[in-house]
Write a structure and sequence with these properties.
The chain is of the alpha+beta class. Helices cover about 30% and strands about 25% of the residues. The strands form five sheets. Strands 14, 15, 16, 17, 18 and 19 form a six-stranded antiparallel beta sheet that branches. A four-stranded mixed beta sheet has the order 3-2-1-9. A four-stranded antiparallel beta sheet has the order 10-13-11-12.
């Protein structure tokens, strides 16, 4: 290892319905960080939100890949404002933090705000863009204001008869009901009969205070990786072909045959170019940085393109689309991680030049 190697702190686990996904993403990132360039500092966050400094990486083999286990530590990690991280009285060396976290308390601006207070560089989007992109309802508002194409939707805060009637008055079935702020298809239901609406709303509202209802679109599911800060670039898109009724949590993470990933997606050149253009426009509209995966619907009849959502900390598991799309375009997984660290440090240097006081 080089004496100039960077201390890269991986945060993984977390308080969200995507805790297990994070453990798998973290295992893949840990396996692919170049040991000649980086020293790994592993901090696992348990489901109660306690941070545990890991003495070593504990990898566990699963039928669908590897995961990093979290071992309890006697001295939980704390954040020291302006001075980074500490375990008890001992400061933790961290040159850059990679929050390999998904969903609530990881992708929604909360961790990002904590790392800003600690004065640490970190991979990915900042507080505003993380929070905004996590909330699908607000993301759609911003995209509409930017003139970008989004599927119609209705936002509800309860599963009352009035809410059910509002859905029936607005949309023909089937519809999708999902938490407004959650990921990995957690809490999503496809509703094909009126009697399924109230239970679907109740399920979505277990994970967020708002439920988003959208009409089912007969479309292909296209995804596009975006990488960069001030000058983001989009990679040729891929396609997800679910073998379940839709691209559910089970299809994504539990069933190895749950979906076929087509890289690159077979699209007309004009459609491919427009998806990549819209991906960058969507990234910029929410003021993202570092990385994001932008998801689309491309209608099977007519080819109309709709933005679906943006993920500012997409999956990094062995089967995740974000790194696979980059790899398909020639950017190998280890080099992708190098680039993400570079972008994190670049963004931190730029922010360090700002004035936060008049003194």
């Amino acid at each position: 290892m080089s004496p100039t190697a960077l201390n890269v702190c991986l945060l993984f686990g977390g308080r969200s319905g995507e805790h297990e996904v994070s453990l798998r993403s973290a295992a893949s990132v840990a396996r692919n960080l170049d040991p000649a360039r980086y020293r790994q500092v592993l901090i696992g966050i348990d489901k109660g939100g306690v941070w545990h400094l890991q003495a070593r990486g504990r990898f566990r083999r699963e039928s669908y890949g590897e995961r990093l286990e979290i071992a309890p530590s006697r001295r939980p990690v704390s954040v020291v404002p302006g001075r980074g991280l500490a375990a008890g009285a001992r400061r933790i060396a961290a040159d850059v933090v990679f929050p390999v976290l998904h969903g609530t308390f990881g992708e929604d601006g909360t961790i990002q705000g904590l790392l800003e207070v600690a004065g640490l560089p970190y991979v990915g989007a900042g507080v505003l863009s993380s929070s905004l992109a996590m909330d699908k309802d607000k993301t759609k508002e911003v995209w509409r204001q930017a003139g970008l194409p989004v599927v119609d939707s209705l936002t509800l805060r309860d599963a009352s008869p009035a809410s059910v009637e509002a859905v029936r008055a607005r949309f023909a079935l089937p519809v999708f009901v999902k938490p407004s702020a959650a990921g990995s298809s957690v809490g999503i239901s496809k509703v094909s009969a009126p009697g399924e609406l109230a239970p679907a709303l109740t399920e979505a509202l277990r994970y967020d205070a708002k439920a988003l209802v959208e009409p089912a679109v007969d479309a292909r599911e296209i995804e596009c990786s975006v990488l960069g800060n001030e000058e983001p670039e989009a990679f040729p898109p891929g396609e997800v072909v679910p073998r379940h009724e839709f691209y559910s949590y089970e299809a994504k993470y539990l069933d190895p045959q749950g979906a076929e990933l087509r890289l690159p997606a077979e699209l007309p050149e004009a459609t491919r170019a427009e998806v990549m253009r819209l991906a960058v426009a969507a990234f910029r509209a929410v003021e993202a940085s570092g990385l994001a995966r932008v998801d689309f619907f491309v209608e099977k009849s007519g080819g109309r393109i709709w933005l679906n959502e943006i993920n500012t900390l997409p999956g990094f598991t062995n089967i995740s689309m974000y790194p696979k799309m980059c790899e398909a375009a020639g950017l190998a997984y280890p080099r992708l991680l190098d680039r993400l660290v570079e972008l994190a440090l670049e963004r931190h240097r730029r922010r360090a030049g700002l004035l936060f006081s008049r003194d």
